[in-house]
Amino acid sequence: PRLSVCRRLLFGLASPPLQLTQNAIGLYLNLFLLETARLRPILISAVMFSGRIVDAVSDPLIGFGVSRTRTRLGKCRPWLLAAAPLSALAFLLLWLPPRDSWGDSGRLAYFLPAYVAFSLAISCYYIPYTTLTIRISSCPADRDSATAYRMAFEMLGILLGPLFFTFIVEPKRTSVVCSQLEWANNSTRGFAGNNSTREGVDEEQAAYLTSAAAVSALVLLCGIAGFFGISELPDNVNSNNKGHQLEATQTSSRNDELKVKNSIRTYLVQCKRVVTYRPFLRATVIFITLSLSWHV
């Protein structure tokens, strides 16, 4: 059966969690850690970079886990059900105000695992979700349409994530002057700038937490919509469709071993083409340089 408009809408509605959280983190987490959590800049870089490393390592492992999942609910939907509340909770924990008595080591010991946990949780949500694209329908036109809905909702998530922080946090920011922060003495931390009082900082912390709670609620709602609104095709349907496609492109005389060898050979050839394509290499170097400069 063709994919209904309602199913496409629900599939798209499940897409924003990554954009909601990552854009809010990209714009405001560094400010929160520096101005509100009073974490040293070098430690902030360690926190952010550790999340990138874990994300790069975990993505292939999560993809492998999704491919090995066998449940009556499907391969991907159980991941959405488990990862959505974990992602919402981990995102909220990132914005909890630290205690003055924690010190630099205590703050690092809290925020680094919290950010790593969030990176893992959101990857456990988004990778199975994108995998669902090929499992919601056997019709290529339906898949393309569902992808269009997904991209539209992702653009909405890009705008909504920072929007909460902009309207809730910005009026409460204490405009801290970094040069006047007393990093070494947590009990006599300096507050500089407009509204830089203890009460003002408490209000700023509450504003960050309120914004994070709103985003976390949206993440949870998107996960619920994805789990209950998306239905996966059975494995035998996907296998039959793949078999028909293979029969149209390959001769029936090839055995399984030859197919595997040819697939590996083709994969290696394509990899060689990618890594030797100069525009791709230039774009990769630029992307890595910008990412490193952002965190350093």
UniProtKB/TrEMBL annotation:
GO terms for biological process: carbohydrate transport. The chain crosses the membrane at residues 78-96, 108-127, 148-169, 206-230. InterPro entries: MFS_2, MFS_trans_sf. GO terms for cellular component: plasma membrane. Keywords: Membrane, Transmembrane, Transmembrane helix. It holds the Pfam family MFS_2. GO terms for molecular function: symporter activity. SUPFAM superfamilies: MFS general substrate transporter. Belongs to the major facilitator superfamily. This is MFS domain-containing protein. It comes from Macrostomum lignano.
